């Protein structure tokens, strides 16, 4: 295989680039339809209570308004049955827009205005008057943490928190060096640049085409058919281009539900776009309060590791993520105790956001490790090397590969870590305090928990088409699947076309979890192998071995010999959860320089080196972009992003990008990515581990540790805003 | 600009990518919505509708603007260049190819606005250094975090343009 790798492993340009730079790539709200009408949501203004009445008279009289849907007049659908389950959701009862008069969170849709124009729907929405019977709400995690509970049912697809090993309480009590601290992380919002949107095209011929912003067209299709009882109709969900999602598109969103509800009732094509201010109430990364207790000997050798997390969830679901799943995997320690709990708030359910759980859990653990380094007088990198392990001590399994040590050494080398002076406030440049910090990152390397299929079709003009239903949300999936197929079929890249993001294509569960490259890639490669076998069989060639090892062979000649115009093959990849001999993970070591204006407290992340071990890298160019982008998002988590609520109103205070800062160009300085060599023949059939999350995990703790090194003041709460740092900058 | 029979609708003529378009529209329709919903030029993107993200950036009479903050009827007779007017797949604008070369995009949603904004930035002529480009491009948000490639692509085109001028 390696000999034939003419395309994989090379920094080939993104195949969807030309369409995207010319404005030709179309997103969900950009498909037109005859007599298209527009839906705009009216959000609730209270966090908890009951709707007493909805006065729609003024809105209904507004020119252009067709219909106003509320809980009082919405048509019945299976979705409103108490038996309906959202297959993608965590344990609990999914939120159902317009089900009844109960208000579960501020910003909940209480009406949908449908009008002939977007402007009319938007303006009429402002005229709807809702009166509520208000109940006392609970949105403050600090207050609700006392009611925290261990979720009784685990969420499908999320690994359970590992069981304790040894006796962490006793080991901690008897450790000569102890670090114990509580860390807080604020809620964050995903904010992909594309607004969530759905255009439902109501066809006269019993077909319904749904252009939706989702990570999984197939999930949305299955959901819509079941929720709206559309079994007699052909429902096709199309999402060839998705303007970012970062987890918010894992579940069917309010936009697609309400657009379908209105389309079915009106028998017309409907578009619903969620405006930016309402994107704060589609889902969020759970805020969490975590306590980490590390017990070690004087050398920093760990004897006890305890971590307890209390994360926010909604009143109606037990949203869960792997916040502590990785905490026992990084460092050798015989006594580990992890406790993951939830506390219910009157908010929408949290929703997976890039490196869900891990980015928050690792912030706490890696901050505590930094505190241990100072408590023992060890260099933070040396401390991690001191405690390095190369096996899974929680499950007593080997790792399929773990090149984390190379991440440490190559990253430190590139960064110049050895020039760091240990004492806080010891590196200064004029009025800037300089801090160097580092942290370790880890994320699951796995195939999708559900089977995935891909089809490849070779045609007589020597073109290959690759199809699978999964989306490319900016991840580079189009490009890497084309590269894999081109190599497998010994074709140049321009002979391969990949089609994605369409529920009518072979089933592939979802883009997400860092699964897609491994899952879809393995399916594509397996389909290519099947196609080659088929071609050899149909062309009655017996010299298979020489054909498949000869890179000059054109498989199209076999197609011609077989007398066929086209031939296709489909393969399915399954991920069986039992009998695993190995634990697989991606790893990272991230080194960060911050510069802090001592008088103003302004923090700049002036240098990042992110060293990544993620198995085989299919495309170093798109892979680098993944890691850079994740690091930049994590700068937001570390320094800027706080979807804080006003607990008097029970509502997120941010309503726009003016009051919720996501990193801009000026926030990004030098950011270098290293992919260390890591050969892994067990993790996936194609040796890849996935890159979507790992670039994010270690960045926020590395920044927090650098801030401590710069100032000598430990901020244990993200984001590290100026007001939180100010007590550490005495003038 | 003339008031039409339907008193809420106003006719406005705007030249888009060199083609005059006479459109009857409500006074509250933004230039962005006119482009996207009325002219089906969906290359200009809506990311916030508040002039905060830059996804809707177009060139209005040669200057970069957030088209979501411009009411269409207020720009009678103006010339608008959108991403569709800069180049085509067969004939890419140098900045469009530089964006591909430097992988200055991922999901692609902010990309048309980034490119139009970068052209506006170059036309303004203020940004000379790496840091000035970063500052001058900070009105265009990219959640995928393609900023490094974006700045590299702009520098690439600025360098080749200045070397072309020197050779002249």
Query: What is the helix content of chain B?
Result: 25-40%
**What kind of assembly state do the chains in view correspond to?**
heterodimer
Name the average pLDDT of chain A.
95
Which architecture of the largest domain in chain A does the CATH hierarchy give at level 2?
2-Layer Sandwich
Largest sheet of chain B: 6 strands, mixed
Number of DSSP strand runs of chain A? 29
Question: How many strand segments of chain B?
Answer: 6
Overall geometry of chain A: globular
Fold-level CATH name of the largest domain in chain A = Aldehyde Oxidoreductase, domain 4
Number of helices of chain B: 6
| CATH level-four homologous superfamily name of the largest domain in chain A | Aldehyde oxidase/xanthine dehydrogenase, molybdopterin binding domain
| Uncertain runs of chain B | 1-5
Q: How widely separated are the two ends of chain A?
A: 63 Å
Please indicate the count of domains of chain B. 2
Which secondary structure elements does this structure contain, and how are they paired or packed?
The complex is a heterodimer of chains A (731) and B (168).
Chain A: H1 17-21, E1 37-43, E2 49-55, H2 57-60, E3 65-70, E4 102-103, E5 109-115, H3 118-125, E6 129-134, H4 141-144, H5 168-173, E7 177-185, E8 197-202, E9 207-212, H6 217-227, E10 234-238, H7 254-266, E11 270-273, E12 288-296, E13 302-314, E14 336-345, H8 358-376, H9 380-386, E15 391-392, E16 397-399, H10 404-415, E17 428-429, E18 432-444, E19 452-459, E20 463-467, H11 477-488, E21 496-499, H12 516-538, H13 544-549, H14 555-561, E22 566-573, E23 582-583, E24 585-597, E25 603-613, H15 620-639, E26 645-646, E27 651-652, E28 670-675, H16 694-697, H17 699-711, E29 717-718, H18 722-725
Chain B: E1 2-3, E2 10-16, E3 19-25, H1 31-38, E4 57-60, E5 63-66, E6 79-81, H2 83-86, H3 94-101, H4 111-124, H5 130-136, H6 147-167
Parallel strand pairs in B: 2-6
Antiparallel strand pairs in B: 1-2, 2-3, 4-5, 4-6
